[in-house]
Amino acid sequence: MTSLSNRGYGIKKTTDNIDLINKIKKELLISPKNFNNSFASSETKEYPIYLESDNKLYVPKCYGIEKFGFPVDDNLNSGVDCPLLEFSGKLRDIQQEPVNAFIDTVMNKNKLGGVISVPCGFGKTIMAIYIACYFKKKTLFISHKDFLNEQFINSIKLFVPEARIGKIKQKIIDVNDKDIVIATLQSLAMKDYDPKIFNDFGLVIIDECHHIASEVFSRAFRKMNIRISLGLSATLNRKDGLRKVFEWYLGKSVYKMKNNEKECNMIVNVHKYFVHNLEYSYVKTMYNGTINMVSMVNNVCNYKPRTIFIINLLKEILINEKDRKILILSERKNQLKDIEELIKIDNIASSSYGYYIGGMKMTDLDISATKQIILATYQMSSEGLNIPTLNTVILASPISDIQQSVGRILREKKTERKYIPLCIDIYDNFSIFKYKGNKRINYYKSNGYIVKTYIDNELVSVDNNDNDDDNNNDKKKCLFIDDE
């Protein structure tokens, strides 16, 4: 017999289903594909995402429903009614479709959850608030970053001004007589709260939900089971292959939208860069012969002539279009510091710059958001950076996954843009960085962006990604040069 409770989806143990129970436990013993920075796989720690008693095996809610159907015995609380959850805004037509897809999944298909995946700038927060107001159940909002929680609180105050807002963080447990409670994923995962504090919730919303697949963060969902679950993310796939984990807890994607050429209309300038200097291009390896990626990225980011090259591109952009608002991204804070020094020396943009990195207070992040140039880490830009006026991004260090980073400059409506969004891609033309660069270029092309390739600051090719055969001869002119 199957059941649904605050412990999860329960499967009763019998003498007849021992093999099935063991099979389920094996499937729910998670072993991530762990690729370190040298691209070599290494041993990983396995962890279970099930609970077990003498009589029952408890598995993630949506895993159980998918495998065995809706439970025979449903004891899971539907949540406290919250009539004060009245939405005072209005969704755009394009936002209504994913919202309707989620509501239909929950109401008509007995799935009890799902994930909405839309590009950065699409309005995930306002859609989540609308959904909370639709169900009018006590809602738990979870994210892994304080500034994301602050953004959500501000949006609640704007669109649901009568809502009573609570908090769960470390020792703070403010949940009584609240309509929406904001919680940090770290606290839920690491602290043992009284399970009863979750009994009144009828809806849980998890921002950047791909994070809950990790061993640490998945602990949070072994401690609670809320009837309706909504995941939000612009990035469904994980490098460790654990997309299935958050889908087992929250439900599968109910709506996925990709950027397209008509919506985005971006220009990408790919600058192929290489110099024969061991401080920059030495291919370092580990003891086992695999590439030492951490060390090589350090060399690339620390190489001052390359940073000066980036600064010269920055100056050229502002000479031609002086009001562009620019996001400069790097994996290394020391590279951002070098860029800052050169900005100050040359008084670029009247030294109107600010940082957007981990550990900063929300008030300081808000101040940085007003600057013309923003120096940020990829991690901070990929989740929660919400500055609609950005129209230019410079990828200062080499990475592969740039979907969310690029999405940060696509938030302005096309009709309100002063400039076409511009991405400056520094393509380090050697070793493993060529693989990363090619992956980025494939992403640009798949989204229909105009890709211009430069070598030694000279334009060598233009790819308009125009699929209209009648216009290709006029619009698409490419010169192929062997740059090896």
UniProtKB/TrEMBL annotation:
SMART domains: DEXDc. Residues 105-254 form the Helicase ATP-binding domain. The keyword Oxidoreductase does not apply. One of its GO terms (molecular function) is DNA binding. SUPFAM superfamilies: P-loop containing nucleoside triphosphate hydrolases. It holds the Pfam family ResIII. It comes from viral metagenome. Keywords: ATP-binding, Helicase, Hydrolase, Nucleotide-binding. The keyword ATP-binding applies. This is Helicase ATP-binding domain-containing protein.
